[in-house]
């Protein structure tokens, strides 16, 4: 949120606010408990409408409300970035495990299927039939 160039970032702030509105809603309600969730939701996440709504119901200036909401938005963005950064190593580890599984397990499965395709087809059909019977039995 670079406030040095407000004209270029106004649209971006509004868009980012709308994207993060659902996660900001509890924070906004905690700060201004007199404003109902339904009233806030009716703004559909429009930054300007939320500012006007809060300003009208609290008597505070729109500028003060904007600054507070921008602070909330910045905190939410930072938390999202940190969460994404912390998930990156886990994602890489999962990709490596899937690659290893694919490299090790695939040959063990493909060889018997290629040697006895009819047996593999029969087993697959039997498993499918059994699963279908079990699932249809639960519905009764």
From TrEMBL:
InterPro entries: DUF883_C (IPR043605). The chain crosses the membrane at residues 118-137. The keyword Transmembrane helix applies. It comes from the Bacteria. Keywords: Membrane, Transmembrane, Transmembrane helix. Residues 113-139 form the DUF883 domain. This is DUF883 domain-containing protein. It comes from Synechococcus lacustris str. Tous.
């Amino acid at each position: 949120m670079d406030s040095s160039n407000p004209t270029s970032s106004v649209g971006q702030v509004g868009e980012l606010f709308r994207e993060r509105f659902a996660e900001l809603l509890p924070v906004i309600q905690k700060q201004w408990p007199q404003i109902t969730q339904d009233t806030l939701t009716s703004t559909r996440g429009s930054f300007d409408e939320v500012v006007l709504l809060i300003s009208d119901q609290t008597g505070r200036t729109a500028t003060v409300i904007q600054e507070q909401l921008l602070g909330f938005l910045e905190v939410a963005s930072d938390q999202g970035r940190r969460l994404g950064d912390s998930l990156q190593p886990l994602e890489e580890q999962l990709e490596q495990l899937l690659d290893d599984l694919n490299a090790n397990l695939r040959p063990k499965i493909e060889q018997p299927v290629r040697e006895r395709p009819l047996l593999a087809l029969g087993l697959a059909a039997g498993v499918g039939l059994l699963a279908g019977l079990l699932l249809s039995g639960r519905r009764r």
